[in-house]
Specification:
Length: about 170
Amino acid sequence: MSEGGAIAARAARRAGLAAALLLSSIGGAAEAARPAHSYLRIDGVLGASNDPNHLGWFDVASWTPGQPTADGRATARITLVGAPPQDLAAAIAAHRTLHEALLQDVRAPDGRLVRNVSFWKFVITGLAPAKTSYAVTLQAAHVVCDDYGPAADGGPCAALKVEPHP
């Protein structure tokens, strides 16, 4: 390889390394900006979270907004930790309309609130069990989503069909 080719190869390696470091730091910053934990409270259904600030809530492994239903209801797919309690399974089986569910994203270690998502007049459809968790889908007639931080510019709230908070 010529001297010019060797110099170009070293420059390309450095550029690749710099790009990888930049992507890694951006990914790290995004990870740091992401909430550390989410919790879900469903009126009338007792969850098993042992977090002192969320007793009776459900621990959420993950959640993502979904496409609205044909009749315009907002949807969210939520993966809950543990096994579903019997009253939740009964509500799903009966397609019962529930009053409110509140999903909170909090940042660790300080527990600072990052996001509140309120689902009003909703049904829970589907129950997909996994080894240590299960996924459900909420379909809500009304959703209010409040972001408290940098995610307000296009986080999950932007993907939900939401009404402005009064």
